[in-house]
Automatic annotation (TrEMBL):
Binding site for Ca(2+): 572
Lineage: Eukaryota, Fungi, Dikarya, Ascomycota, Saccharomycotina
InterPro entries assigned: 6hp_glycosidase-like_sf (IPR012341), Glyco_hydro_47 (IPR001382), Glycosyl_Hydrolase_47 (IPR050749), Seven-hairpin_glycosidases (IPR036026)
Residues annotated as catalytic: 176, 321, 443, 482
Protein name in UniProt: alpha-1,2-Mannosidase
């Protein structure tokens, strides 16, 4: 704020200097009509100098106002306790008014429901949140909050012991159930085994995880290609095709099960979990000639029976995103080189076909190819794509701090290029928050890019810099994590406090514009937003489990010290797993079971 005021004053003076210089110039020019007349030269110099100062001052002002962060306090301890309070408020509201339900409406406290059609709970919110509570428990400086956290972890543990049963007689989505439930149980188990707090016995989480995995397992045996259909009945083991899209499964869905099943194989020694999860890749790459015909970029649907792609829609947003994420993360988790090579191919494909820039600021974004690789791009980008900043940064550095990574023998110009894409994309995603009136990003934006096909229509909201638009139906905010996820990775890989400032600014916007009962600490909770543009920002009466599992967790990690990204791999739902030990992998005979 102070800096902005200074720039205002500076701009004012340079403007008056400019006017004065212009008057002098005019006066002297009228007197002597020669360019070499000394007073004329002086007046001209004054004129051009003031013009130059003015331009610099105005552009700095513009830059400060639209492209950099607002001044926010970034005391990490203060921020950590703020986030602990937000987690506990959001969570306690759920415990009071929605306990045990998979779907929760924080405004009405009504219409609570469960994910499975049979109405039995899967533990959607409870299981997804346990490791966030454990993480806070291990780091909080407050005695009072520590007690609250212990009580709540115990509550969850008891619920998992006494109430939770995955013997559910109705279909559930394999991907969502794996990343949230299997992932949540495994990371809860991992954290209870490795943290100082031994009061929690995490065995129940592993028992439930094994039971759930056994119930999902038949899905891998059902289709001729080994690619699972999209759902499975957890009681009968019947796998069920997607009812729409010609029975196609989302490509990102069956390629986002591997970290969880491989980690389970690593804990239990059951190699079947490993090989089943891995079996999807060979047919996918072979049947589609994915590296040659598609440059490593997948259309978002695949027919499970044939392993062939369905349609031409290629994007890093919904249904495409975590295919790329799990290629890299499998390499980081187990060190299998094939997955880095495949990731590399995809990223090079992305650079060749999808990386573009907006006008006028040149924000880097990842475009879509809805009509196939060799047809025009669309300038639309889902907020979901914003995880790519963190992923590219991790792919370049493998979790080493950037300066250290640059000294490694494997560092090269390609990684340097990936690194720059990572920082530029994260900046773009930050702008998607910074430029809206609520300070929160919408679900989807369309970039101002004449070279990409997306016709601007009346009624689209235009960002202050003019770089992106928001369509009325895309203006909601589900409290998604992807931008703060990338910001968290970039902070710990660089130590650059700018990232904490960005994170603090976004945190403030969540705090201010997604709270409900905002002034009553005993009832305060948080909810999604209907619209990030029009004030007052209307709440949506909906909270997704990833608000507690991911968004608040990544924000919390942003303000912790010494987060070791070399030894932790976050699944796509932000559940942390440990990097696998090579010796143990060899002992258990767990290794890549296929080649290209
Ligand atoms: C999460 O459930 C996972 O990150 C998934 O991969 C896609 N995104 C949502 C949160 O936005």
């Amino acid at each position: 704020m102070k800096f902005e005021l200074l720039l205002y004053i500076f701009s004012y003076f340079s403007l008056s200097l400019l006017i004065q210089g212009y008057q002098d110039l005019w006066r002297v020019k009228r007197l002597k009509n020669t360019v070499y007349h000394p007073p004329l030269l002086l007046a001209m110099t004054r004129h051009w100098l003031s013009l130059f100062i003015g331009v610099v001052a105005f552009s700095s002002f513009y830059y400060v106002k639209h492209l950099t962060g607002k001044e926010v306090s970034i005391d990490p301890l203060e921020r950590s306790s703020q986030i602990e309070t937000m987690v506990l408020q959001s969570w306690s509201d759920y415990v009071r008014n929605g306990w045990g339900k998979d779907i929760y409406h924080p405004i009405s406290h009504q219409g609570n429901d469960n994910m499975a059609a049979s109405k039995e709970p899967l533990g959607w919110i409870i299981v997804d949140t346990i490791d966030t509570l454990l993480l806070l428990l291990n780091n909080t400086q407050s005695e009072h909050r520590r007690d609250q956290l212990i009580q709540n972890v115990q509550l969850c543990t008891e619920w998992c012991q006494k109430v939770l049963s995955y013997d559910i007689d109705s279909p559930v989505n394999i991907f969502e159930t794996t990343i949230r439930m299997l992932g949540g149980l495994l990371s809860a188990y991992h954290l209870t085994q490795t943290t100082a707090n031994s009061t929690i016995d995490g065995q129940v989480f592993l028992t439930q995880a094994v039971d759930l995995a056994e119930r999902i397992k038949p899905a891998f045996y059902e289709s001729p290609s080994g690619i699972p259909y999209s759902s499975i009945n957890l009681h009968s083991g019947e796998a069920i095709r997607n009812h729409v899209d010609n029975g196609a499964s989302s490509t990102a869905e069956f390629t986002t099960l591997q970290l969880e099943f491989k980690y389970l194989a690593y804990i239990t020694g059951v190699t079947e979990y490993w090989s089943l999860a891995e079996q999807v890749y060979k047919p996918l790459y072979a049947e589609n000639d994915l590296l040659n015909r598609y440059d490593g970029l997948c259309p978002i649907y695949t027919i499970p029976d044939t392993a062939k792609f369905h349609g031409n829609n290629i994007r890093f947003g919904s249904r495409g995103d975590s295919f790329y994420e799990y290629l890299l993360k499998q390499y980081l988790q187990s060190g299998e080189p094939i997955y880095y090579e495949l990731y590399r191919e995809s990223i090079e494909g992305m650079k060749r076909h999808l990386v573009r820039h907006s006008s006028p600021s040149g924000f880097l974004y990842i475009a879509e190819k809805p009509w196939g690789l060799h047809n025009p791009a669309s300038a639309k980008m889902d907020h979901l794509v914003c995880f790519m900043g963190g992923l590219l940064a991790m792919g370049a550095t493998e979790g080493y701090k950037i300066e250290e990574a640059r000294r490694q023998p494997w560092w090269d110009s390609i990684r340097e290029e990936d690194w720059h894409l990572a920082t530029d994309l994260t900046h773009t995603c930050y702008q998607m928050y910074h430029q809206t009136p609520s300070g929160l990003a919408p679900e989807i934006v369309v970039f101002n890019d004449k070279g990409a096909r997306e016709v601007k229509e009346n009624g689209w909201w235009k960002s202050p810099t003019g770089d992106f638009y928001i369509k009325p139906l895309d203006a909601h905010n589900l409290q998604r994590p992807e931008t703060v996820e990338s910001i968290m990775f970039l902070y710990h890989l660089t130590g650059d406090k700018k990232y904490r400032e960005w994170g603090a600014e976004i945190l403030e916007s969540f705090e201010k514009n997604t709270c409900i009962h905002c002034d009553d600490a005993s009832k305060k909770a948080y909810s999604s937003l209907d619209n990030v543009i029009n004030e007052p920002f209307k709440r949506k009466d909906n909270v997704e489990s990833f608000w507690l599992a991911e968004t608040l967790k990544y924000l919390y990690l942003l303000f912790q010290e010494d987060v070791d990204l070399k030894s932790t791999i976050f699944n796509t739902e932000a559940h942390p797993f440990p990097k696998m030990d090579r010796e143990r992998l060899l002992d258990l005979n767990l290794s890549t079971g296929w080649s290209i």
